[in-house]
Write a structure and sequence with these properties.
- This protein has a single domain, classed as Up-down Bundle (Ferritin), CATH 1.20.1260.
- Helices cover 76% and strands 0% of the residues.
- It is mostly helical.
- The longest helix is centred in the N-terminal third of the chain and has 31 residues.
- The chain contains 5 helices and no strands.
- This is DNA starvation/stationary phase protection protein.
- Belongs to the Dps family.
- One of its GO terms (molecular function) is oxidoreductase activity, acting on metal ions.
Length: 156
């Protein structure tokens, strides 16, 4: 870490960045799943889900960049390999191509997991008076809660 003075101590920056690394890994894993499902969805809901998944992975692509840049702003190296993401993510990869309804269920669970990860990072950011990270994570949490709701609504 270099000499930066943004009002957050080194230990707090490292703790927050560790949480953000998990959030980045969860978000990137969810991005890959969503993109995969976009490519491979079939069935009567094809068009609706194909377009919905595209909106979701596009939004996630921006999110991973924002999260990685916040990690760098805290003067910590952002992870950027499949191996690192696999070790850090609490979202497990899907090996097969599930049916459309199962895709919706898997993605719903993924978004809900990201919300839980956000809550952990938010607490660390709030404890360190890191309003910038708290705002980013709060925005992410709101987006994932809304997306999970929209996915749940398609399966009713």
């Amino acid at each position: 870490m270099s000499n930066i003075d943004i009002g957050i101590g080194e230990k707090d920056r490292e703790k927050i960045a560790d949480g953000l690394k998990c959030l980045l890994a969860d978000s990137y894993t969810l991005y890959l799943q969503t993109h995969n499902f976009h490519w491979n969805v079939t069935g009567r809901l094809f068009r609706e889900l194909h377009l919905m998944f595209e909106e979701q992975y596009t939004e996630l692509a921006t999110a991973v960049d924002d999260i990685a840049e916040r990690i760098r702003t805290l003067d910590v190296v952002a992870p950027g390999t499949y191996k690192a993401f696999s070790e850090l993510s609490s979202i497990k990869e899907v090996e097969d191509v599930p049916a459309a309804e199962e895709m919706v269920r898997i993605l719903t669970q993924g978004h809900e997991q990201v919300v839980k990860t956000c809550r952990d990072v938010l607490k660390a950011a709030q404890d360190a008076d890191d309003e910038s990270t708290a705002a980013l994570v709060s925005d992410r949490m709101r987006e994932h809660e809304k997306t999970a709701w929209m996915l749940r609504a398609t399966s009713q």
